[in-house]
Specification:
Elements lengths: L6 H14 L6 E6 L3 H14 L4 E6 L3 H6 L4 E5 L2
Parallel strand pairs: 1-2
Antiparallel strand pairs: 1-3
Length: 79
């Protein structure tokens, strides 16, 4: 668990956590709830570390929108 102050710090720490949990550059899916700019930011940062990774960005729908909440994201990846 890490303390985050500011949105950009939280996003950067989420990316670090992604790497710490075993993301190794394969497939990454970012679902956003009315936050395409956030999804693009995360995708660009991951693309810098893993240029060959396949990144898919999509809007949330249904129950996923409820869990992500407005301006939130859900990230899934393949190890």
């Amino acid at each position: 668990m890490q303390k985050c102050r500011g949105k950009m710090t939280a996003y950067d720490k989420a990316i670090k956590e992604l790497f710490a949990r075993g993301f190794n550059g394969k497939r990454l899916i970012i679902a956003h709830c009315f936050a395409p700019e956030l999804a693009d930011y995360i995708a660009q940062k991951v693309q810098l570390a893993f240029p060959t990774s396949k990144i898919e960005i999509m809007p949330t729908s249904g129950l996923c929108s409820y869990y992500a909440e407005r301006k939130g994201i859900l990230i899934g990846f393949e190890t």
